[in-house]
């Protein structure tokens, strides 16, 4: 009876997983949702509940297991089974022809050479290993021979299958290596940087750096929150299975990967002649600008895999492939004005107002000059003709001035001694390039930007209240601090210009709805310098309530992985400010939620394993790995994947790996399962 009960639970769990995998594939790989979010959630929650009741049945390939592993303390190295080469470049059609001529010379005049052209996406090369259909590990390219094991971060990318589903009755290859470009969509990059800018955090240079930075995080929560994607461009069958087809062309390999559920680079084209190839490359130069990802060229590969083998490799790159690079687009235009904009934290940024030009597919009429140091170095003046381009093909940037064309009398824009909006003196903190307005409390620009931040989607998400409405509310002195928003009535809105009953009602309702946001949003909404959306999540997940956060000391804050001394100091100073104290009291009185529910585990701080870091190695006699990890976490311990000086215990099973030796070397005590259970 008991057995058949568990079997049916097991079957239900497997069938839920299968259904979720199918919908995931439709949504994240094919971009064709096959179910509503609500229905998906229902199935997902059923699986979560069953797995919670039967933790023994949790397997790493379950759709519930994408995020959730504890932060690592470092990444392990991985030696690639097959080296990841780089590519030779071609910058024009001559280079392409020369490449083709070399192919012909090596393969013989009579060889019919066909090509695959693929848009070269500008991200990060990754390699994934699947054994019997299960994702075993994923690694960065590194130096091509040795990379870093970033499996736990790659698992958070929804388009990467944790398990290759069985196709009908066809089993996946026994061992398959696949390679992809890990990417951050341009839109996500822009949003991330906007958040970071508003929070006074350093911005990423381009989507590639943002993607690389995300995948380098030891805490998988970070990449999980950043909407990364992976587009696959090749596979190597290391050990076929009974149903693995014989593949003789690159194109067939791509089709096979798609059939296994991998997401391919959609911009690819089979070409039989160099002419086709050149045409394709020219066509894509415009098309590429409407893709969600950055691309900087076209990868051209010999399609026939036997020909590839014959051509082989040079020291650095395959002879059978080449990367055609598009020339960067630079255009001259006129500087009509240089405006000074004042941000939420008081930063004063010079912005060049340009005569409109089309760059990388969109019209550009403003370009940030970042700060007065840069403005001075480039010596940009109103009336100048300048070269502009898009940095990383996204962000408009002034490259240089055409000095020969400089008109007779131009005036350089100097760093202002007073704020261009409120006239308060400006200041510059030591060690910072930013020039700031010194009146955070009264400067209308800073105040307006802070209110806009408060209602923004990343913060309290008040969608019925936009910038125009906020401006009127401030002008009429209906709001002074964000807490005042919560005292407004529908009638207050009706006294404003151009506001009808419906939008007044809408504004009121969305403000009220925002009283119940999770703590992380409230923390982000406060707009503390150096605290953005992600730090806010870390703080909420550590303290669970605003009160607890307010009581936190510098030391408590620095103890959080991801919070440094500068950020900690900023938080403590901000929260101790009498204005902040008052604001928080008013918000509380207005009914704004100040805490998250703490996950209900009663952890006993006197338990010998409380706060201790464990590393598991080898096979345990009775406990599954998941079981053991859960038991450790349940008593307040942590699990890490690698041994270091910070490791407190190694839980030692049969045939342990190199971790046991490392532990011994570092003098980390090890426990057998029996000892572990006894102390538990
Ligand atoms: S093939 C040995 N195909 O470009 C063959 N690479 O400069 C090398 N890349 O590290 C890879 N899109 O990160 C290939 N469709 C594509 C690609 C692509 C982007 C990147 C990849 C690689 C780099 C080589």
Low-confidence stretches: none
Q: Name the ligand types.
A: 2-(butylsulfanyl)adenosine
Number of helices: 25
Main sheet record:
7 strands, antiparallel
Keywords:
680 residues; seven-stranded antiparallel sheet; binds 2-(butylsulfanyl)adenosine; five-stranded mixed sheet; alpha+beta; 37% helix; 25 helices; globular
Structural write-up:
With 680 residues, the protein is of the alpha+beta class. It has 25 helices and 22 strands. Strands 12, 13, 14, 15, 16, 17 and 18 form a seven-stranded antiparallel β-sheet that branches. α17 crosses α18 (533-543). The protein starts with a helix and ends with a helix. The mean pLDDT is 91. Bound molecules: 2-(butylsulfanyl)adenosine. 2-(butylsulfanyl)adenosine binds at residues 85-87, 118, 120-121, 125, 141, 181, 233-234, 265, 299, 318, 321, 323.
Present the secondary structure layout.
Blueprint: H1 2-29, H2 37-53, E1 77-79, E2 89-90, H3 93-107, E3 115-121, E4 124-131, E5 134-140, E6 146-148, H4 151-154, E7 175-183, H5 186-198, H6 207-215, H7 221-224, E8 229-239, H8 250-259, E9 268-271, H9 274-287, E10 295-302, H10 305-311, E11 321-325, E12 330-342, E13 347-359, E14 362-368, H11 372-378, E15 385-391, E16 395-401, E17 426-428, E18 435-437, H12 444-455, H13 467-475, H14 482-485, H15 490-494, H16 501-513, H17 519-525, H18 533-543, H19 546-551, H20 554-558, H21 565-576, H22 578-589, E19 613-617, H23 625-634, E20 638-640, E21 649-652, H24 658-666, E22 670-671, H25 673-679
Parallel strand pairs: 2-11, 19-20, 19-21, 21-22
Antiparallel strand pairs: 1-6, 3-9, 3-10, 4-5, 4-7, 7-8, 10-11, 12-13, 12-15, 13-14, 13-18, 15-16, 17-18
Helix pairs in contact: 1-2, 17-18
Bound molecules: 2-(butylsulfanyl)adenosine.
């Amino acid at each position: 009876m008991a057995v058949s009960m568990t079997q049916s639970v097991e079957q239900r769990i497997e069938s839920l997983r299968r259904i979720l995998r199918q919908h995931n594939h439709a949504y994240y790989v094919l971009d064709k949702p096959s179910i509503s979010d609500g229905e998906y959630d229902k199935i997902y929650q059923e699986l979560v509940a069953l797995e919670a009741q039967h933790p023994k049945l949790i397997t790493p390939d379950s759709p519930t297991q994408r995020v959730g592993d504890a932060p690592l303390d470092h990444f392990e190295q991985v030696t690639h089974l097959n080296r990841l080469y780089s590519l030779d470049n071609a910058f024009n059609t001559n280079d392409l022809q020369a490449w083709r001529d070399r192919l012909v010379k090596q393969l013989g005049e009579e060889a019919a050479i066909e090509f695959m052209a693929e848009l070269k996406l500008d991200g990060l090369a990754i390699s994934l290993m699947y054994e019997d259909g299960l994702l075993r590990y994923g690694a960065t390219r590194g130096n091509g021979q040795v990379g870093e094991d970033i499996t736990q971060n790659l698992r958070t990318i929804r388009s990467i299958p944790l398990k290759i589903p069985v196709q009908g009755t066809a089993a996946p290859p026994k061992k398959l290596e696949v390679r992809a470009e890990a990417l951050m969509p341009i839109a996500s990059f822009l949003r991330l940087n906007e958040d970071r800018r508003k929070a006074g955090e350093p911005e990423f240079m381009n989507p590639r750096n943002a993607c690389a930075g995300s995948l380098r995080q030891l805490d998988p929560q970070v990449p999980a929150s950043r909407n990364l994607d992976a587009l696959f461009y090749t596979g190597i069958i290391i050990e076929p299975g009974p149903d693995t087809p014989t593949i003789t062309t690159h194109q067939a390999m791509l089709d096979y990967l798609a059939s296994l559920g991998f997401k391919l680079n959609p911009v690819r084209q089979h070409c039989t002649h160099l002419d086709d190839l050149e045409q394709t490359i020219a066509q894509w130069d415009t098309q590429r600008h409407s893709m969600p990802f950055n691309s900087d060229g076209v990868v051209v590969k010999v399609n026939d895999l036997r020909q590839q083998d014959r051509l082989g490799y040079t020291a650095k790159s395959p002879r059978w492939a080449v990367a055609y690079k598009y020339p960067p687009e630079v255009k001259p235009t006129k500087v009509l004005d240089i405006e000074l904009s004042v941000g939420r934290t008081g930063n004063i940024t010079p912005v060049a107002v340009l005569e409109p030009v089309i760059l990388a597919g969109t019209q550009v009429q403003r370009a940030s000059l970042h700060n007065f140091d840069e403005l001075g170095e480039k010596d940009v003046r109103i009336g100048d003709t300048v070269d502009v381009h898009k940095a990383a093909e996204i962000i408009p940037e002034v490259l240089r001035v055409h000095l020969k064309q400089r008109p007779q009398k131009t005036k350089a824009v100097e760093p202002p001694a007073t704020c261009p909006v409120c006239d308060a003196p400006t200041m510059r903190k030591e060690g910072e390039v930013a020039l700031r307005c010194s009146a955070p409390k009264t400067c209308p620009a800073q105040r307006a930007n802070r209110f806009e931040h408060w209602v923004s989607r990343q913060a309290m998400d008040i969608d019925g209240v936009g910038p125009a409405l906020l401006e009127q509310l401030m002008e009429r002195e209906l709001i002074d601090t964000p807490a005042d928003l919560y005292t407004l009535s529908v009638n207050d809105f009706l006294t404003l210009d151009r506001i009808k009953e419906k939008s007044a009602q809408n504004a009121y309702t969305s403000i009220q709805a925002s009283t119940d946001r999770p703590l992380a949003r409230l923390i982000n909404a406060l707009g503390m310098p150096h605290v953005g959306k992600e730090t806010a999540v870390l703080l909420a997940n550590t303290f669970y309530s605003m009160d607890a956060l307010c009581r936190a000391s510098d030391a408590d804050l620095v103890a959080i992985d991801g919070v440094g001394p500068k950020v900690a100091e900023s938080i403590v100073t901000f929260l101790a400010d009498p204005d902040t104290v008052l604001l928080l009291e008013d918000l509380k009185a207005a009914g704004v939620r100040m805490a998250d529910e703490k996950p209900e585990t009663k952890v006993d701080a006197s338990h010998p394993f409380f706060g201790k870091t464990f590393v598991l190695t080898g096979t345990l006699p009775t406990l599954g790995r998941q079981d053991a990890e859960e038991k450790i976490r349940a008593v307040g311990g942590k699990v890490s994947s690698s041994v270091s000086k910070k490791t407190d215990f190694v839980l030692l099973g049969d045939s342990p790996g190199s971790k046991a030796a490392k532990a011994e070397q570092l003098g980390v005590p090890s426990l057998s399962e029996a000892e572990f259970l006894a102390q538990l």
